[in-house]
Structure formats: C-alpha cells, structure tokens
Amino acid sequence: MPPIMPPIDRAALDAQTGGDADLAREVLMLFAGQCRSILPRLTDPALPRGERADLAHTLKGSAAGVGATRIHALADAAETRLRDGGGPVPLDDLADAVAAALAAVAVWHP
Fold first, then answer.
1. Nearest alpha carbon to residue 7 among 43, 32, 33
2. Rounded to an integer, what distance in angstroms lies between the CA atom of residue 92 and that of residue 83?
3. What's the pTM?
4. CA separation (Å) from 54 to 16, 81, 94, 99?
5. Residue 23 CB partners (closer than 8 Å, separation 6+)
6. CATH placement of domain 21-106
C-alpha cells in the first residue's frame, strides 16, 4: 500500500515561500479561493470541454505552487482527458482531494 500523501506538502510549500509563514498562509488562502472558484465550474458538464480543460490547467498550476501533489496529479489527468475529447471525465477523486486540501488550509499552523 503506497503511503498516504498529505493534502499539502509542507516542505514543498516552504520551498515556494522561502519558509515565510505569513507568505505561506497568504498563498494557501489564494489557493483555497481558487479551489472554491474553479471546482464548481470544472465539474459543470454544461461548460465546453476546452474551458473545463483550461480550468483544470489553472488548478494544476495552483496546486503545484502550494505542494498539493494529489490535486496536481488529478487536475493534470482531468486536463488531459478533457483535451483529448474522450468520454466522461471522472472528477470525484479531484473533488475529494480539494475538500481535503481546503480542510487542511482551514486548520493550517506554520
């Protein structure tokens, strides 16, 4: 069984913010806001696949910036699936990963 990844990799976040706790908190708040904004639109099948792929790409980049490796991987997979025009795009795991990251951000202590 592979090890369970934390929703936010503290070492990756520290590397991105130079260990500045205030900056880390600010970046996490921005990330949380993006998650709350992007996920509902990304999961909306009424939006064109290209728009949804762009949203997945944005979420993937945001996740990379805070060390949310599971979200990064799942958003990358969603983006690829949306761009290749394949069948339905399963987003339940991504939604669960976002929920876990938002919960971690809510109780974040440097």
1. 32
2. 18
3. 0.91
4. 23, 12, 15, 20
5. 17
6. 1.20.120.160
Domain boundaries, the chain: 21-106
Torsion angle, CA of 49/83/62/39, rounded to 10 degrees?
30
The pLDDT tens digits along the chain (110 residues) read: 555 778 999 999 999 999 999 999 999 999 999 999 999 999 999 999 999 999 999 999 999 999 999 999 999 999 999 999 877 888 999 999 999 999 999 998 76
Pair of tokens at residue 26:
């600010």
* Unique residue bearing structure tokens 């592979």: 2
C-alpha R_g of the chain = 14
Helix-, strand-, coil-residue percentages of the chain, each rounded to 5? 70, 0, 30
